[in-house]
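Could someone model zinc ion with this protein?
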Amino acid sequence: MGGPEIERLIGLLAKLPGLGPRSARRAALRLLQHPESRMLPLATALTEAARAVKPCRLCGNLDSRDPCSICDDPHRDHATICVVEGVGDLWALERAHVHRGIYHVLGGTLSALAGTRPEDLNLAPLLGRIEGDEVREVILALGATVDGATTAHWLTERLRPTGVTITRVAQGVPIGGALDVLDDGTLAAALRARRPF
Amino acid sequence: MGGPEIERLIGLLAKLPGLGPRSARRAALRLLQHPESRMLPLATALTEAARAVKPCRLCGNLDSRDPCSICDDPHRDHATICVVEGVGDLWALERAHVHRGIYHVLGGTLSALAGTRPEDLNLAPLLGRIEGDEVREVILALGATVDGATTAHWLTERLRPTGVTITRVAQGVPIGGALDVLDDGTLAAALRARRPF
Ligand SMILES: [Zn+2]
Ligand SMILES: [Zn+2]
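Reply:
Sure, complex below.
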């Protein structure tokens, strides 16, 4: 039906989160009907982003600059590091405008089920910054899941010898909930009500 | 947040049908995390499809061949032409395997509101085929909307002088409903129960 190029396009679109087979077909059709104004610009944007965007060597954020635009911003509070599981959580906190410090992206949580061990997490740059820079506070903004709690406890033990103040987001993260689906108000409340770990 | 490449990618993804801003961000993040295995293959598929896929000069279907693989298939019944509004409707009927003839894609319906007039529709190749080839039946498979009904009546008047048999899909298309969201069974029943117009 339409040849291998169309089948291939629909197959790749259907793998995107949020798009099933039906919406992938609708998206492909919309693109095919506007090759110059929609399809080729999207192809270019994908190629450009693949070329330009890299994980920040300091914090793990995805950015076309390295260090990223957050780590490189002198107006942000570099003494307060908010630790998140993934870049999606960082994006959620940035959209909510609730954190004026910088971030550290772990790239996962410890998980017995998924077999994620401490050495699989992005930790060395965080330790380096705590030891080298004037870091006052590390805010653990991990989801209220079993793995999130395990990771928070492990990180606290790991960071305690450095003498840095460790806090965690407290109120508002629903049990079993992920951070990056919360509304801005809930995220703000959770961050404001953080308490020592 | 992450630079102009990421913002641009999210903006273009958010314009796809079925993807809002939130799912566009999730899709972009998934792609950014797999540049080689997901992002660049999608860019290539888009570029290839934009290059290869064109409307069939005979029926208006989108295909990387012209005439399309349906018009070019000697095993299909070229004496029965199913007229649809758009390529999405053709795809739906093909998925349901309910039509063994060929198609004609009008590219729209007559609409006073949208200002679509007869000269905006893809009609000439259909008239050419009816006059030149041995076409026995034209099945009108248009949505049960005001514009669909208007278009069906207008087409019937337009085709009557050719002496071709004109039928329309009858049962199963819900009032106000579009064709390309129906299940296969409903489509099959609608096509089987077609009656003279
Ligand atoms: Zn950074
Ligand atoms: Zn064709």
